[in-house]
Amino acid sequence: MATKSSTTTSTAATTTVSATQASTSSSAGTGDGFEDADGPGRACRGAHENDNSGSHYQVAASGSGSLELCKEACLLEPLCNGLEFSRGRCEVWTRPGGIRATKALSNFRCLRYEPPGASSFQPMDGGLGRTCRGANANDNSPSYYSTHENVDSLFECKALCLKNAECKGIEYGFVLRRCEVWTRAVQATESVEGFACWARDTDFQPVSGGDQACRGAHSKDNSANYYTVVREQSLDACKLACSRYGTDCKGIEYSAGRCEVWTRPEGIQATFPLKGFSCLRYQPSASTAALVQKKSRSRRHFLGPAFLQTGYQPSVTEFTEGAVTEL
Q1: pTM higher than the cut 0.85
Q2: What whole-number distance in Å separates Cα of residue 321 and Cα of residue 253?
Q3: Rounded to an integer, what distance in angstroms lies between the CA atom of residue 209 and that of residue 212?
Q4: C-alpha to C-alpha distance for 253 and 268, rounded to whole angstroms
Q5: Which CATH fold would you assign to the domain 16-113?
Q6: Are strands 212-215 and 204-206 parallel, antiparallel or unpaired?
Q7: CA–CA separation, 210 and 207 (whole Å)
Q8: How do residues 151-174 score in pLDDT, each as one tens digit?
Q9: Pairing between strand 270-273 and 42-45?
Q10: Cα 144 to Cα 142: distance, rounded to the nearest angstrom
Q11: According to CATH, where is 3.50.4.10 located in the chain?
Q12: 119-200: what CATH class?
């Protein structure tokens, strides 16, 4: 589209959502897209464990009665990407960058809501209020994307992208219900209300699905020589730590604030089933490699959609997986 105009409704920092309860709760069972973020006894956070801005969520009165009702309140919100539930309080999270960290709090539950593949996207320049562009803010050739009308949610737009092996990102118009599936790399954005631009993250791919710990040649091959342990509060930060190793990084293992940057020359060839762990193989594109080199010459580094770090260096810790029993 050459020009785009629409209006959006801003959400107050902490608003009360009144939603008609769904007629059935079958979607709230196993395999419904909800997963504990870092296990039970956790409260949701944004980019890091102290990021709890009221703008990240809506307080849903209809979901305060139980966890299942809170899930239903999330499903009724098109932008919901997770929830926090505790004793009569339900937070429906709509933060563009999603729930990227948690904080230990007893009697709290933090669940991410991510339909299959939804986590394979990263918000461009914050995501909301942005339209996708090519090389610069004025580069918007119709040849870069295919258009889909009557798409009811951002998640549906993401699903259309995941069905296309050539998809590099998406642009979604909330009022128009219009989805652009981009087959050209999204390198820039333009500020336009009522739209969202997300790039498909193809550099990090899950190894053997979810709830897996990384291993070397086989499932019991877990030599400490294969990786460096860094303390990071989010998956995004763990990815950044890996990218700063350049081609030496073969992937990451992340769980509840613990990040392993794998540098085993042969790469990650196996996994071990472990609840709450993520094993991602790193295969940077040419554009990513160039971007990392550019950032390494800078004194400031942008991490995800939320904050800047100056002079970032991974901090080595004494953490081990010994706290978790492995067979």
Answers
A1: no
A2: 11
A3: 7
A4: 10
A5: Hepatocyte Growth Factor (3.50.4)
A6: unpaired
A7: 8
A8: 877 877 887 887 787 889 999 999
A9: unpaired
A10: 5
A11: 119-200
A12: alpha beta
